Amino acid sequence: MAIADIAAYAHLTDQDIEALADELETIRRDIEGSLGERDAAYIRHTILFQRTLDVAARLVLAFSRSRKGWLLGTAALAFAKSVENMEIGHNVSHGQWDWMNDPEIHSTTWEWDMVAVSSQWKYSHNYRHHVLTNIVGVDDDLGFGVMRLTRDESWEPVHLLQPLRNLLLAVIFEWGIALHGVHADRDRYLPDTVRVAEGNTILKRKIARQMVKDYVLFPALSGRRWRRTLGANLTANLLRNLWAYVVIFCGHFPDGAEKFTADVLDKETRAEWYLRQILGAANFKAGPLLAFASGNLCYQIEHHLFPELPSNRYAQIAVRVREVCDKYDLPYTTGSLVRQYLLTLRTIHKLALPDEFLTATADDAPETASERKFAGRGGAVGGLRTALQKGARRRRRGVAA
């Protein structure tokens, strides 16, 4: 099933893992030591760009009368919302810019432009997901509580609805994140019913503010053209939701993003945590524009290794992380955005079915693997990447035969 012995799966000794972590810590120190005004200017310019684009989009919607004007304004508004959501809100809330000591761009003060509450999301995401990444039954982001994404979760008839659940989650992604955050917050504070009630109240107030802003205030300011503005806001939020969903799923659920049992948490060292992040995340290939539009979460491996480092440095960090993976013969899971999403969809649809309809074993499937997949394969086969490549060649020969 999921990986229980991370060192055995990675084909690394304890000394190798410690040495790998030392190299990653060197990367961290180098980046932290080089942060300065250029980085601060980047986030300030990004916020200015996003707010300017938001205003420009609303002016186009307000003063244009053509369908092309509506499409242009709506597309610009959707892009502005996406930038605010991922490159600004997500990354600021990770504390990536706390070193600036700017109270307006700080993880303790930033509230993003969607129904989820930043403080609730920070607990469910920054702690339960980033610290406990892909631990089956512990990391709530592994399926978001509505989908089966590993064979370690027993199949139930409700999973037949998984393709529809996936579509619904994509459409209402901000609402899924909001509920995900408040449920994690509830588990955090139980049995303190007062704190739980406070969390529910905070979420309700945030939802009310967002609903009034997007679906009452801005349409009302448009006067007789309120339907046009309402439609634009609905469409922009939908497009933002769909894009955020695609980016997040492509970074966590394609083939090669491994899952782990809770056993790995027993006496896990910082070095082993680093290794788990490399094995548990996936990137997708992106140029500068696509990287910016995704909040630089095309570099999900780097983000999981260094969630507190500024996102504008991830492209630079990725070069060095890939060199470390090459040195220790570890896979560096990446592919085109389309490929990663199609692999994710395959897993979602495949695991909607009972296990008896699936062909690969529970220890050696694209979406679920463990160290037991290497049992009985003789002596040393090199590192993990080499072992996986040899296994893939064997499977291809078996299919060809």
Structure overview:
- The chain is built from 15 helices and no strands.
- With 401 residues, it is mainly α.
- The chain has helices spanning 6-10, 14-34, 37-63, 67-93, 118-127, 162-171, 173-189, 193-221, 226-252, 270-280, 288-293, 300-305, 314-327, 337-350, 384-400.
- The chain is globular and about 75 Å long.
- It has one domain.
Keywords:
401 residues, mainly alpha, 15 helices, Fatty_acid_desaturase, EC 1.14.19.-, FA_desaturase_dom, oxidoreductase activity, acting on paired donors, with oxidation of a pair of donors resulting in the reduction of molecular oxygen to two molecules of water, oxidoreductase
A few lines on this structure:
The chain is 60% helix and 0% strand.
Topology record:
Blueprint: H1 6-10, H2 14-34, H3 37-63, H4 67-93, H5 118-127, H6 162-171, H7 173-189, H8 193-221, H9 226-252, H10 270-280, H11 288-293, H12 300-305, H13 314-327, H14 337-350, H15 384-400
Helix pairs in contact: 2-10, 2-13, 3-4, 4-9, 5-7, 7-8, 8-9, 9-14
Query: How much is the average pLDDT?
Result: 93
- Based on Cα principal axes, name the global outline: globular
Number of strands: 0
Which regions contain 5 or more consecutive residues with pLDDT less than 50?
none
State the separation between the terminal residues, measured CA to CA.
Answer: 27 Å
* Largest sheet features: none
SSE string, helices as H and strands as E = HHHHHHHHHHHHHHH
